[in-house]
Amino acid sequence: MELRQLRYFVAIVDHGSLSRAALVLHVAQPALTQQLRQLEEELGAQLLHRSAQGVVSTDAGKVFYDHAQAILKQVADARSAVTHSARPSGSVTMGLPHSISGALALPLLTAAREQYPDITLQLTEELTGNLAEQLKSGRVNLAVLFDDGQLTPFATTPLAEEELRFICRHDAIWFSDRNTVSLQQALNTTLILPGLQHGVRPRIEAMARAAGLVIGNVIEINSIAILKSAIMAGMGATILPVAPVLPEIEHGQMRSVRINSPAISRTVVLCASRNIPLTNAANAIAALTQQVAADLCRAGTWPGARLLST
């Protein structure tokens, strides 16, 4: 298996056509077809379905595509680490959970452009479970995750402790005359939450078990945008940090209520792979992320977040 075969395969999938990929790669189409055939023979699996309309990945092809992308990215990172060893430059990919990106993404992008103009910072917004897998495979260099006790495969740096609150529509009948609710009261409502492996859900489940409580009726939605729409439709409430729903709270569409007995929070951490070395550029972005998170906490512009010492 050769790197060029990986590049050819990724280009074919990205462009959806052998002919278009051949044009972009400046490779004759028969040569491209031959390299693809050799790759499939070596793997013992068909990677693409071919038709007059183009090509689409088989199930095996989808799995291989993810690995091929990760390998090509690590090769590019290795090249960048050697050729740009003096001054941080190159491309860095960072993964952010949906519920964090609203607070951290824009300040981090702004700071990166100002302090490291030679670094191309690519931010990807994903579910936390997906980000962990992408970090393991090397498809992202860094990821912001939550300390749920399952982060041992990663090198971690704590960024902040983020309070979780009971979030509901502004006119919801739940505890309308209360400024706080107990965790048990919150859990007894119809809650709209991510799936078990994502976002705030593991933390809520752990806190419930520790308090000897049981979560009642749950509607699972793995999208912040759809989750907010469900709250506005009156389907239920949620337990989230304030940041992702701050616009709705400021416009009077939703409200947040503190949870006590016990209070609930999550630890936000910056993660990197223990097995894949970071480039100078990635190390620079990691340090910058810590700085930006600290500045946001001190300024109070990351709602509900408290700075953690490293």
From TrEMBL:
<dbReference type="InterPro" id="IPR036388">
    <property type="entry name" value="WH-like_DNA-bd_sf"/>
</dbReference>
<feature type="domain" description="HTH lysR-type">
    <location>
        <begin position="1"/>
        <end position="58"/>
    </location>
</feature>
<dbReference type="InterPro" id="IPR036390">
    <property type="entry name" value="WH_DNA-bd_sf"/>
</dbReference>
<keyword id="KW-0238">DNA-binding</keyword>
<dbReference type="Pfam" id="PF03466">
    <property type="entry name" value="LysR_substrate"/>
</dbReference>
<keyword id="KW-0010">Activator</keyword>
<dbReference type="Pfam" id="PF00126">
    <property type="entry name" value="HTH_1"/>
</dbReference>
<dbReference type="GO" id="GO:0003677">
    <property type="term" value="F:DNA binding"/>
</dbReference>
<protein>
    <submittedName>
        <fullName>LysR family transcriptional regulator</fullName>
    </submittedName>
</protein>
<dbReference type="GO" id="GO:0003700">
    <property type="term" value="F:DNA-binding transcription factor activity"/>
</dbReference>
<comment type="similarity">
    <text>Belongs to the LysR transcriptional regulatory family.</text>
</comment>
<dbReference type="GO" id="GO:2000142">
    <property type="term" value="P:regulation of DNA-templated transcription initiation"/>
</dbReference>
<dbReference type="InterPro" id="IPR000847">
    <property type="entry name" value="LysR_HTH_N"/>
</dbReference>
<dbReference type="InterPro" id="IPR005119">
    <property type="entry name" value="LysR_subst-bd"/>
</dbReference>
<keyword id="KW-0805">Transcription regulation</keyword>
<keyword id="KW-0804">Transcription</keyword>
